[in-house]
Structures are given as structure tokens and as C-alpha cells.
Amino acid sequence: MPDPLTVASGVCAVGALLSSWQLSRRAVRAEAEIDRLQAELTAERHAASHDPLTGLPNRRAFYRLAAALLTDNAGRPLVAVVLDLDNFKQINDRYGHAAGDKVLISVAERLAAFAGDNLVARLGGDEFAGLLSSPTVDHRWLDHATGRLYEMLAAPIPLGAATVRVTASVGLAPVHGTQLTEALDRADAAMYEAKAIGAARAHRALHDAPHLAEC
What we know:
By secondary structure, this protein is an alpha+beta fold. 56% of the residues lie in helices and 20% in strands. Helix 3 packs across helix 4. The longest helix is centred in the N-terminal third of the chain and has 46 residues, at 4-49. The N and C termini lie far apart (98 Å).
């Protein structure tokens, strides 16, 4: 007959192993649940601060990130950029909203490529903004920058069997100190001034210190 003490000891050992296994399983499940919740929180934060179509920061995130850059830019000159596509409604009307979305995505990708590590955002609709660090803020650099940006945006965009080219009205304004809102207002005014000129010239630049506008 088995020794009762031996049997009891074995039962306790099995019980301890089972309890340890259950605790381990619970710990794994708890860790997986924490990872899931953290992933959901990260996704929610990203969705709250980014445009769902283009993936660029949205208006709220742009102002928050720009404010942080202005307080820690190591004295580098910064330029505010406002960009608005010309006659974008015609693309939606002629090719449909899916095609319009594709154009916006392409423009966002090109703007991000132009800006590099700098901040760019979609403010809404077909309006974009950026905050670019620059070696200087003289008119020659601004004119060169707007010309490069225009060329990148003007490259053909395939839309199935069709291909479109887009133009944009662009306003740039140097940022003085931490006056982001004032710089954006000047850039916005320059952008509308460029748009008001109309499409008489495919590439136009306005020099009127302290801003430059191009379309």
C-alpha cells in the first residue's frame, strides 16, 4: 500500500505545478491584454493627431508640433508655408472623389518628400501647411524653394486611364521669433495673392517683403 505521506506529497507537488502553470497562463494573458490596450491607445492617439487620408499631421497636431519646434529650433531660421491646390474641385467633378483622394495623397507624399525632416500637415480639404528650417530667409532662397516645390507638385499623377497635373498657390513667410500665427497669416495672404493672379502664368512668384508667394 502506498505511503499516505508520499501520496499527499505527490498531490501537493502536482497541485503546485498546476497552480504555477495557471499563474503563468494568467500572466501571459495579462501581458497580451496590456499590449493590446497599449496598441489601441497608440492607434487612437495617432488617429486623433493625423489626417486619416494622407497620414500627415492634422491641423491641431501641426500647431502643437510647430509650437514645440519654435521653442527649440537652436536659432535656425524657420519659414511658414501655406499651400492650396488650384481648381481642385474640377478634379472631383470630372474624375470622382476617389480620384480626388488619390491626388491629395500624391500631393501629401510630394510635400513630405520636399520637406524632408521638417514639419508638414494637411490643414483640411486641399490646404496644406509646413514649417521648414532654412539656411537663410532671403528672397533668392525662398524663390528657389517655391520653384522646386512647384516642380515636384506639377509632375503627372496617374488616375487609372487618365493622367492629371496639378498646380498650387503657395505662400511663404519667415517666422520671427515664436510668432507662428503672424507668419502663417502672412503666408496665407501671400498664397491668396498668388491665387488671385489666376492661371495666366504657369509659374509665378511675388516678391513683397517679408513674404513671397508662388503658384
